Amino acid sequence: MLEQSHKQAIQKAYSAFLDSQSLKARKGQKQMIAEIARQLATIVTDNEGRRTSGPSITVIEAGTGTGKTVGYLIPSVVMAQAASKSLVISTATVTLQEQVISKDLPAIKKHTGLDFSFALAKGRGRYACISKLDRLLQEEKQTESLVDLFANEGFSIDHDSRARALYQDMLEQFAASRWEGDRDSWPDALEDSQWRMITTDHAQCSGRRCGYFRQCPFFKARGDLEQVDIIVTNHDLVMADLVLGGGAILPTPKDCIYIFDEGHHLPDKAINHFACQSRLKGTASWLEKAGKYLRKVLAQNTFPGELGERMEQVQPAIEGLITALSHTRELLHSVAHFEPKSQGESQVAVYRFPNGVVPEAVVAQARLLLAGFNKATGLLEKITRVLNDAMNDDMPGIDRMRAEHLYPEVGAMVTRLQGQCQLWHSYTIIDKEGGPPHARWLKWSEGTFGEELEIFSSPTLSAETLHSSLWSQCYGAVVTSATLASLGNFNRYQMRSGVPSESRFVVVPSPFAHGSAAQLIVPAMAVDPRKQEEHTEALVACVPALISHSQGALMLFSSRRQMNDVYGRLPASVQEQILLQDDYSRQELLSRHRALIDADKPSTLFGLASLAEGIDLPGRYCEHVIIARIPFAVPDDPVEAALAEWLEAEGRNPFMEITVPDAAIRLVQACGRLLRKESDTGQITLLDRRVVTQRYGKMILNSLPPFARQIEPVR
């Protein structure tokens, strides 16, 4: 039960915040505050504050305009402090993360009377490795080895005077305390290739043994996290922490209350963290470079005892793997049935193993590769341990400075090899009977860079992983977003996320008056959108009139090809009013659109799914949303195809369990671009009559907000 003192603290903080902003209480916001506080208050603990009751998860779909950030921050801050737990606020996008850390939390701290500290948690890859930065500038030969061993496949960097000047400037700015050492605080835009050369991962980092440890930007930031009440981060970092067992980057889950804003992205983020892939030719090429580098190191140094023995043993292990990869490529070509299609200047073909089951010959080869990669990994891990001791001056005969130079390069090899172990292990395991299988597939391509064969493996659902590593482990959690329910229930989200069925599921409606603010129109189009050419011609015919109705409009397509075809067939006078998504970066696209509207000129954005979510165009920036068709997922995604195949084998209907609910969510997101403020008005036009002609379409239509509807009859 919610204690009176906690209830009063929350009410007092909320009232103070509203008064400071001259705002009125919102019904949905109050409901959200109450739901979170009550659910967190049900947690039962032992004398040491450990949760002894079942998982406490609250799933809240909060409609646009609810003010969900304030709705979850105030109750969770009070309840987290009362329970002496860390509050971890995780978002899917940098934009929302920046809003929470720079706007929402400071405002709540200033105006509510609540006293708390907060910090932003970023992954190691956002921070510069000062040791690597220094070594890049010290030796040109050292730089050459770094290019080969720290880079991704197919990556290279131009070591001209500009690159050296950039790194020199970074080191000087850091030494003078004018730069904090993270990518986000560097004043100029950085290319990924430039940044990749000066960052690191856990396998390359020597930690406290590094000569730059006390100045390390990453470890200084990590130390700050241990002292704060609230940590703002992203879903990727939370997943990375869970993959490492929890508590490696963030506080341990049992001591955390998590808030997952934009929580509809969480299942996909989890799947991505447990998926793996490899380019066979690219991996063989990298192994050759690694072997060449190790031979060079052995030729230039005499290593004593175990270190020398291990270094000599790695080379034949690498050569064996290169040979095995060549045989694997031939084997996979013999078992896969590729049907190449043109994709730009390349030929591409994908082959998915039915039901995730691979032929026994492939399983046997995967076991061979797994054994080989495990052996090479084990040898290099032993080498890193010896080098670690050498950096502590505990190994006679090994120069400490040389050990510091070798450690990150060997560590980089270990990381790459561990990834290979993960991939090939996934091809040797038998999926749990009755459960969703792994999706396993191949991608062949041939283009200007030659021929390549990629091999992939991915879970089809993240439910079991999230349940075991997150929901059952954490002290408590809140998942919120404007789109979590689908077709009036949370079944699809439960399937994808593994949220326990006994969790609290709540829909908090938007405060917007949808019925009077917006109208949903389904025009009288006789064409079936599944006949793409006919549908495209129909769109070309109606677009000029549709975009003439408003100054600012957004037209969303499910297909890039159709978007380009429609644009290309429009008269030049109409094209002049359209900004095409592919022509600009997202930021530049929106900036140009706003500038045109501000100058009282018409502007229509033509975009794809990425513009159906996360963009904010209030008022006359978007008075009309035009949706070309129901946004069904692309049918050839290997992970979704494998999941659908499994559901069919279970006697279930994947179209109704996956395809339709997902399309409904995407359509809600697309419609959500129209009303961004309570004063907004406008129109939504859906150019797909399946919402009224098909049974599933009517289900999708009825899942939308209660807009006024105009269904034009076909004559």
Structure commentary:
Helices cover 49% and strands 14% of the residues. The protein has 715 residues and is α/β, with parallel strands linked by helices. The protein folds into four domains: 4-123 and 222-271 and 463-508, Rossmann fold (3-Layer(aba) Sandwich), CATH 3.40.50.300; 124-211, no CATH class; 277-335 and 357-432; 514-711, P-loop containing nucleotide triphosphate hydrolases (Rossmann fold). Strand 15, helix 22 and strand 16 form a beta-alpha-beta unit. Helix 1 packs antiparallel against helix 3. The radius of gyration is 28 Å and the shape is globular. It starts with a helix and ends with a strand. The model is unreliable at 140-144 and 150-159 (pLDDT under 50).
Task: Write a short abstract of this structure.
This protein has 26 helices and 19 strands.
Task: Please tag this protein with its features.
715 residues; alpha/beta; Rossmann fold; seven-stranded parallel sheet; 26 helices; globular
